């Protein structure tokens, strides 16, 4: 008599991320150092797999930045490890790029509690994903990224399908070729890293690959939006002592100014690094710097160009 999981077992057996590797069947008998060497060799395959998807990743980022430039949000949705990675990437954007907490949002199937405890059945619901997006008021200006190592997780696929119906831009990030998630999205990104060291444990190579791609999506989008000046985090939010020290170092690297000048600029601009740099390099006061940045959409280079045109 067939089990109720026969169909799902058949699906999983076709996935690269779920493949069994008989050559590793005795790995638990090996010395720890040898297991570590094996795992390290496995991990070296991840960057190459990401590199193979760079054209698709770049196209997705350009489209993402265009939506965000007109006020859209970046929304990550996933279950389990994939969901946690989305929440992690979203949570790091405010301190790094001074984004509003509602500008980049990570949602995990089952809600915040699922970050530390599994919520049974949450990943199996397309309807839950649709409800989560509706609760956020997702719409045409937003970017929705479904994340799933298998590329078949109903929560991630449902998020992309529902978001596309709302007119949002959709990205599907998976680690299997020919995935339903990529097929459902405007931009499918399939980073095929191969079978895992521990069969089906996609927190390993697949998780690493997803983290690398999410780093690219958020970081390069922010670069395109003017959140950096060169490779300096000029929109950093100085919320602790380390970041306050980093703010001063950034202003120093960007301007070459002495410490008293830097301190005066930061005081005048209420600690806003980008504004402080503009007051020094553009030789304008704090109010003018704020106005120039507002009219340039926050792009420091454009604001500096405009500053040179002032009488």
Automatic annotation (TrEMBL):
Short name of one Pfam family: GKRP_SIS_N
Keywords assigned: Carbohydrate metabolism, Lyase
Active site residues according to the UniProt entry: 92 (proton donor), 123
SUPFAM superfamilies from the UniProt entry: SIS domain
Reactions the enzyme catalyzes: N-acetyl-D-muramate 6-phosphate + H2O = N-acetyl-D-glucosamine 6-phosphate + (R)-lactate
Known EC number: 4.2.1.126
Pathways per UniProt: Amino-sugar metabolism; N-acetylmuramate degradation
Enzyme kind, highest EC tier: lyase
Keyword DNA damage assigned: no
Family: Belongs to the GCKR-like family. MurNAc-6-P etherase subfamily.
Subunit structure: Homodimer.
Name the record gives this protein: N-acetylmuramic acid 6-phosphate etherase
The organism of origin for this protein: Streptomyces bohaiensis
């Amino acid at each position: 008599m067939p089990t109720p999981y026969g169909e799902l077992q058949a699906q999983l057996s076709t996935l690269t991320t779920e493949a069994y590797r008989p050559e590793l069947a005795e790995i638990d008998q090996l010395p720890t150092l040898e297991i570590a060497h094996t795992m390290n060799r496995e991990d070296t395959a991840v960057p190459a797999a990401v590199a193979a998807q760079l054209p698709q990743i770049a196209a997705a980022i350009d489209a993402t930045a265009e939506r965000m430039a007109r006020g859209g949000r970046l929304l990550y949705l996933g279950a389990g490890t994939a969901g946690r990675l989305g929440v992690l990437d979203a949570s790091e954007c405010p301190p790094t790029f001074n984004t509003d907490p509602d500008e980049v949002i990570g949602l995990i199937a089952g809600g915040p509690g699922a970050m530390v405890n599994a919520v049974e059945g949450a990943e199996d619901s397309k309807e839950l994903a649709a409800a989560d997006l509706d609760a956020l008021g997702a719409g045409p200006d937003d970017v929705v990224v479904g994340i799933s190592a298998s590329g078949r997780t109903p929560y991630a696929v449902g998020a992309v399908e529902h978001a596309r119906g709302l007119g949002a831009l959709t990205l599907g990030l998976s680690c299997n070729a020919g995935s339903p998630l990529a097929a459902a999205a405007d931009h499918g990104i399939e980073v095929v890293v191969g079978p895992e060291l521990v069969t089906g444990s996609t927190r390993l190579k697949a998780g690493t690959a997803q983290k690398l791609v999410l780093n690219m999506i958020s970081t390069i989008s922010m670069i395109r939006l003017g959140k950096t000046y060169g490779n300096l985090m000029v929109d950093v939010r100085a919320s602790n002592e380390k970041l306050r020290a980093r703010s001063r170092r950034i202003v120093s690297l960007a301007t070459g100014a002495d410490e008293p000048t830097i301190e005066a600029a930061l005081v005048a601009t209420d600690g806003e690094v980008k504004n402080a740099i503009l007051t020094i390099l553009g030789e304008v006061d704090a109010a003018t710097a704020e106005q120039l940045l507002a009219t340039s959409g926050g792009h420091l280079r454009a604001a500096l160009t405009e500053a040179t045109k002032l009488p």
